[in-house]
Design goal:
With 651 residues, the chain is α/β, with parallel strands linked by helices. The chain has four domains: 1-90, no CATH class; 107-161, no CATH class; 182-412, Rossmann fold, CATH 3.40.50.300; 417-643, P-loop containing nucleotide triphosphate hydrolases (Rossmann fold). Helix 3 (92-101) crosses helix 4, helix 4 packs across helix 5 (145-165) and helix 20 (568-580) runs parallel beside helix 21. The two termini are 53 Å apart.
Length: 651
Amino acid sequence: MVRLRLAPLRAAVVLAVGFVLLRVVYRVVFGGASGVGTVLVELPRLRLDGPFSHVTMFGPIAVVGLGNAALSALPVAAVIVFFGLLNAVVNVQALFARGASRGPLRAISRSLVIAWATFPALLTAVRRVRVARALRGERSIASLLVPVFEQTIERALALAASMESRGFAATRVVTGVCEAPIVLRDAALSFGAGPDQTNWHLDELTVTLVPGTLTVIVGATGSGKTSLLHSMSGLFQHFYDGVQHGRIDIAGVDRASTPPRDTAGFVGLVGQNVRLGFAAETVHDEIGFALAVRNVAPPIVHARVLEVAARLQIEHLVDRPIERLSAGEASLVAIAAALVNHPILLLVDEPLANLDAAARERVVAVLGQLAHEAGVCVVIVEHNAREFSRVADAWLQIQGSRLHEISPEEIQTTPIAEIAPPTPIPSVAAEPLASIRQLSVRHRTELAVDEVSFQVQAGELVALCGSNGAGKSSLLHAIALPTGADIVVVAGRDVHSLKQRTRRQAVALVPENFDDLLFAITVAEECRRADRTLVGADTAATFAHLLGFDSTADAAPLLQRHPRDLSAGERLCLVMALQLAARPALLLVDEPTRGLDHRARALVSSALLTAAGQASAVIFATHDDDFARGLATRTLRMRAGRLETPIEVLS
């Protein structure tokens, strides 16, 4: 548990200095910072009226007063630096985790390990929201509050769920029966009937799944696939307050009375947003977490970590910090962490969503081998169901409130090419709408994008393809927020020299984590927020149009909902509408089909076609080759930070 890392100490020093400065500002604002000696500024005293008549603001500011204010903050600042130093040399989270598994402080240690792991999420949320503010052209500090709070709570809940499903703080050992991985008998699922609950429910669930099989669950976005999966993991009943009727047995254990932590020894779970559920700081510790919390000897943990990493061909990632993983690499690490316990039952939620073609093929093969060679019962929720056609043994589809067994031929698919045929490629002789000139991006010591140059014509839909970690997301972010002059030129304007809100008229980005751009508590408020500084903008109408409605009135029920209560496709269309409000000449979209069903993919396809007009263009990064072929007028491929096809360097 002893290590040396400077990052926690640096963060603590910054936080301590910030606290001291905040204390000094507080003293200056409320009552002044007076004292003997030299007076720096003589501010007038202001006494508030009414119930605040006892409060005096401002006053003389003296050197001694400022010093006293700073000294009064030093004890708290010292504590902050102490914990930063402690975290730099000792793995405090691992220490809390050990205390949570045994000893007199077990209960408080469970809370501390969640709190300790969640605190960095607060700093991460602030950084992400600052980027999101820049992407949306927001200048209000108040706009930070809602998304920072939501992202921090989301991280805390996802972390707690992940640790629960991997056996953290389990108090007993439950043995599973290999012969009966899943048995549902006349089961029903719902979220209750309270005024704040949804009306979603699944009824008449009678399913038996045997060892050595791979089952794929399909259904429309929002149909309840994830809830059904979590009724098997136990999170639905014991973490998300879902209501179960009937009987659900998992490896011979009654799911209703047995929490996930007690079945972690034989049930593996891979959630949707795997980054939120990561509990460790390195890939090695993340993969071995479920064994470590059971106090397995470190040499055995290490050997098992290397074994699982080799099976997934991610040995090169074992020593890497979690924060430096690409989206696809993170998915592979999460799958490895679920396999470390040799599960009887493996539950996987959309494993292919973030993966490139090679990684998808590898994951499909591994999951098939686990089922058919290792005898594991594998259950997968996936929109890209076609890729499992050669390894799947059974298909279940949610339609309405029922679960039906279907054949692969019955899975409803809608080819993108039929929805959105490619537009003709504009003449290359025309003046380019956008020029990217020797753009490079470096993340610390790593070169993520290496002198990329290309041009985009008006009306183009350019697909940016490449493997995980190739640099696609880094390239899109750098185009939207360039750090140097004359690198990104759109419609004849140097994007770097433009002011924040003016820049959105040249280029706008819908990032992969598009929820970051949602700041308000209703869809209508999000739309009004986007319209207030843009003449003639009607974001609500754009949102309705992207969803296929004839008018804003038709979308009225959606406008009153919380943005995060929308389906993934609806939220993506909302963020696209927000970014299109400024009428950008160049729209950038990162992974627009991730986690979407075929109907939602059709909505996004139509939205991208709408965005690429006579005076505008779209660049979208994707792993979905079918989507790219059916929509793009041109494809650029990246490898190791560079475009694969040599591009003429622009002067």
